[in-house]
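note to self — DONT lose this again. spent like an hour looking for the file last time. sequence + predicted structure for the chain T wanted, 358 res
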Amino acid sequence: MKKAAIKSIIGIILAGSMILLTAACSAKPESDSDSKNSTASQGDVSASQTDYQYGKIQIPGKDGALCGAPIYIAYDKGFFAEEGFDVELISADAETRKIGLNNGTIPIVNGDFQFFPSVEEGINVSVVDGLHNGCIKFLVRNDSDIKEAKDLKGKKIGVDEIGGTPHQVASVWVENAGISALPDKHEVEFVPYSDGNLELEALQKGDIDVAALWDPFGSVAEKEGKAKIIFDLSTDEVFAGKYCCFLYASNKVLEENPDEVAALLRAYRKAQDWISKNPEEAVDIIINGKYSAIEDRELAIELVKSYEYPSAENRANGKQKVDEDVKYFAQALHDIGYLKSDAQEFTDKIYKEVDVNS
């Protein structure tokens, strides 16, 4: 890999990555939850509680992403309140999130390994936990003969942004099949679309050969018979069983008040455990509360199950290790040239294990 090529692609990736700190599994439309009062009751516990140990905090949680379910459930069922937080769910763009994390006014956000290049460049956060597994699908037209990664040489792949997670996932996928993702190699071309619906239209028109999409766009299109899925982040052998989305804590809060981060993680873990054991009820809460724009209950349940939110039992038996998944994706991005740091050094720097029992 030539140094010039690496320098070129890193520049592109970092430019795109600085759009980061969007909602976990980013680039999804705002949901109708924005019409709700952001200080609405956090379940029965919150409604009756008058003294919050950690006071009022803001958590970005109004992007409508289905895979952000732990935020909605922790809020709605009062898990945040139980741990001493008066939570206000807010809408926050990239700059707001970055500023909030750096100065500690936003203590925690969820995001995927798309964040890694920007963290390498100095955003003051640490990975403190894993949130869920895959939520991205790749689609082709029903009459396409593309079936696997090796068929993508010379093809055009639609993504939400250059440097975004669908772009990085597709890059790792084709590189594992021996196809270079670097633009100067001209073995595959990535085409950005700001809207998933526009990307699907481009696929049908033949402007692109593959559409790399966040849920639920891909799953809905397949269910309606408009396209077929050739890649599922939650089941593909390169990615299956690994966190794609992590929890990032403000280093300022970690250093000054680690107990607050520990309490937040307990609330998230309660929600993850509850969702893993009650996926149908979780979907009902999300749909009825308009936390996400999805209306197809059956599909939403299927997707929520596929994200494999960790239960307390799975955590106890060490089924999935956050640091190992951070290193895995750091290595994959480093091999392509999207990340400059050595994977182990990057993992040691970015990952902080928090004692949730403190």
